[in-house]
Prior knowledge:
- The protein has 5 helices and 13 strands.
- It has 229 residues and is an alpha+beta fold.
- The N and C termini lie far apart (102 Å).
- 22% of the residues are buried.
Amino acid sequence: xxxxxxxxxxxxxxxxxxxxxxxxxxxxxxxxxxxxxxxxxxxxxxxxxxxxxxxxxxxxxxxxxxxxxxxxxxxxxxxxxxxxxxxxxxxxxxxxxxxxxxxxxxxxxxxxxxxxxxxxxxxxxxxxxxxxxxxxxxxxxxxxxxxxxxxxxxxxxxxxxxxxxxxxxxxxxxxxxxxxxxxxxxxxxxxxxxxxxxxxxxxxxxxxxxxxxxxxxxxxxxxxxxxxx
Length: 229
């Protein structure tokens, strides 16, 4: 039965289609290993900078670099931007933020490493991102598993590793080190490795257990000494 005189519901949606899509339809990570490495190091960086109120850390967000050009977007795995505040964002529009991110980290794979080293690298340079780092999770595709580039003029120059093998990200004040089971991020100012909240909690729990075990050992030793008297 038709009801031709029925009026539209007052709460019917009237929003227009978002001109700048929030997703490119691609999966967040190519493999589980890529996903875990991305999430772990995002948490490490986010926790490290948690005390800075105007610093924004995120990843897999659509970043638009030309106003009105709805197809000109890229989605970095992890990016860091200073001085733009921590408000919730659905996309990152460079012309609205007033600047591009200061640092980008991409996790290369069999399907992306060529583009990471060519077209994407050139695009990030054209956008004006000061530092661009790459990590090859599978350690099979990039020339070296961990690479860093710094923008000099309009081009990226590869950053040489230090004597200890670390690659300095000057924008972050942090060193990236290739390790046996991935890579680590080291803070030279505190001489400590960055931790996720879970890693920090585990470290603190281990320290407590060690202290408790040492205290129990000392108590037992004291009891033995008392027994000899």
